[in-house]
Amino acid sequence: GPAGLFCALQLAQQRHPTTGVPLYQPILLERGQPVESRGRDIGALIHRKSISTESNFAFGEGGAGTWSDGKLTTRIGRNSGTV
Questions:
Q1: Residue 14: CB partners within 8 Å, gap ≥ 6?
Q2: What is the tally of helices (H) and strands (E) in the chain?
Q3: How high is the pLDDT of residue 36?
Q4: pLDDT tens readout for residues 1-47
Q5: Separation CA 73–CA 34 (nearest Å)
Q6: What are phi and psi for residue 77, nearest 5 degrees?
């Protein structure tokens, strides 16, 4: 997700203080589809109840945070209505 991408960026930017040689060369492994394809897969999940095990809210470019506005909804009690 976004935190992992940021962490990889920070590591990739680290340089040896005297030689300037990169200290790290992070490797990023992404599971799932790019954001554009993920949007279609998530639409199918919401509207047709058809789930892709490799491309959904949790898996794909940017991780679960891509489709989050930062709020936590538990759907318990008062939050059980349509959001």
A1: 22, 23, 24
A2: 2, 0
A3: 84
A4: 778 889 999 999 999 999 999 999 999 887 888 888 888 888 898 89
A5: 25
A6: 65, -120
CB 32 within 8 A of CB 4: no
Which has the closest alpha carbon to 1: 42, 21, 29, 27?
29
pTM listed for this prediction: 0.55
* 47-52: Cβ within 8 A, 24+ apart: none
The three-state secondary structure class of 2 is helix
- Alpha-carbon distance 61 to 54, whole Å? 11
* Dist. CA 63–CA 57, nearest whole Å: 8
